[in-house]
């Protein structure tokens, strides 16, 4: 029996463990790898499925894929990129030195946009499927907690927002990476130039 090869990629390690246990019991599934960030995912694909790596034009995050389906463009945005491990948050670019060291091709990654920047207009197929016109503009979004902070009036000096769902997250905007002196805290790119967000969190579900 020919097995279906799959890989699991998610930053929630407990979720990955559950999926890995489930698929490992399936006779028709060959679990090739489990990874917890974008960098390790691409590295695993190149190591374990080199023919797929070579044939891949662009590696996309889920939002990137949706933007591509809507516009035909290969783009991504900075707040989501923060969690991939191949984005240099201090220098606001792909971490090419690391990619080169690992033998990974930066040209296989999409063009970087700011949060809220226009990605393009609807391509004809998307227009037909959605019943919308050609003048509809599509914009890049933001990582969920950054978007929630904006909706809650945060991402401005002196304001801390809290969200509770599958995780409890506090979000506080800063204007420089140097303002975060605790290396154990997570820092993401914000929605503006020279804006970042400190995101201490804990899982609740």
Question: Biggest β-sheet: count, sense, barrel?
Answer: 5 strands, antiparallel
Tertiary shape:
globular
Helix-strand sequence: EHEHHHEHEEHEEHEHEEEEE
Question: How many separate helices?
Answer: 8
Instruction: Report helical residue fraction.
Output: 25-40%
Beta content comes to 25-35%
Task: Determine the N-to-C terminus distance.
Answer: 38 Å
Ranges with pLDDT <50 over ≥5 residues?
A: none
Structural class: alpha+beta
Radius of gyration: 19 Å
Number-wise, the strands total 13
**Average predicted confidence as pLDDT:** 93
Task: Please characterize this protein's 3D structure.
The chain has 205 residues and is α+β, with helices and mostly antiparallel strands. It has eight helices and 13 strands. It has helices at 13-24, 38-48, 50-55, 62-71, 78-81, 96-101, 124-130, 144-151; strands spanning 4-9, 29-35, 75-77, 87-88, 93-94, 111-113, 118-121, 137-139, 160-164, 167-174, 187-189, 196-198, 201-203. Strands 9, 10, 11, 12 and 13 form a five-stranded antiparallel β-sheet that branches. The protein is globular.
């Amino acid at each position: 029996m020919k097995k279906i090869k799959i890989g699991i990629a998610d930053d929630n390690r407990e979720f990955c463990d559950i999926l890995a246990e489930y698929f490992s019991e399936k006779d028709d599934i060959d679990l090739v790898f489990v990874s917890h960030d974008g960098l390790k995912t691409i590295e695993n694909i190149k190591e374990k499925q080199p023919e797929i790596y070579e044939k891949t034009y662009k590696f996309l995050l889920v939002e990137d894929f949706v933007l591509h389906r809507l516009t035909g463009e290969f783009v991504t945005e900075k707040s989501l990129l923060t969690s991939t491990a191949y984005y240099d948050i201090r220098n606001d670019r792909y971490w090419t030195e690391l990619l080169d060291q690992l033998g990974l091709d930066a040209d296989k990654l999409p063009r970087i946009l700011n949060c809220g920047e226009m990605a393009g207009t609807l391509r004809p197929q998307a227009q037909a499927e959605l019943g919308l016109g050609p003048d509809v503009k599509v914009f890049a979004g933001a990582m969920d907690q950054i978007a929630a902070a904006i909706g809650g009036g945060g991402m401005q000096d002196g304001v801390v927002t809290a969200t509770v769902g599958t995780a409890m997250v506090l979000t506080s905007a800063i204007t420089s990476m140097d303002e975060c002196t605790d290396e154990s805290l997570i820092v993401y790119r914000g929605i503006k130039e020279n804006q970042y967000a400190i995101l201490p969190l804990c899982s609740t579900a």
